[in-house]
């Protein structure tokens, strides 16, 4: 959908050299980065289902993922990047529209 919009980007790339974090979609020139977060791994408020076995391990893992997401967003925003986070269950058309709006310089809705 993004390509059909005429947008060109990198996939699974590191937006900032030296920052060991990869984003799903990166627009280097426009400094827009997109993360598509999985409902299970990133604790979606609508769809996440807690683990029923080895809960101590999984709870630590989920908390670690959430802390890293917050830190990643903060670091990128401090470096003047626009960060878009989408849940895997979101309609692709809606996410593509948000991304295209951000890349073209408007405030995403």
From TrEMBL:
GO molecular function terms noted in the UniProt entry: endonuclease activity
Gene3D superfamilies named among the record's database cross-references: VSR Endonuclease
Signal peptide segment: none
Keyword RNA-binding annotated: no
Alphabetical keyword list: DNA damage, DNA repair, Endonuclease, Hydrolase, Nuclease
Family: Belongs to the Vsr family.
Name the UniProt record assigns to this protein: Very short patch repair endonuclease
UniProt lineage: Bacteria, Bacillati, Actinomycetota, Actinomycetes, Kitasatosporales
């Amino acid at each position: 959908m993004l390509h059909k919009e005429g947008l060109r980007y990198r996939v699974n790339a590191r937006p900032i050299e030296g920052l060991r974090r990869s984003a799903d979609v990166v627009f280097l020139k426009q400094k827009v980065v997109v993360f598509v977060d999985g409902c299970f791994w990133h604790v979606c408020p609508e769809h996440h289902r807690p683990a029923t076995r080895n809960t101590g391990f999984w709870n630590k893992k989920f908390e670690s993922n959430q802390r890293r997401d917050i830190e990643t967003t903060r670091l990128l925003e401090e470096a003047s990047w626009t960060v878009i986070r989408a849940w895997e269950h979101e309609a692709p058309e809606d996410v593509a529209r948000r991304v295209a709006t951000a890349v073209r310089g408007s405030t995403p809705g």
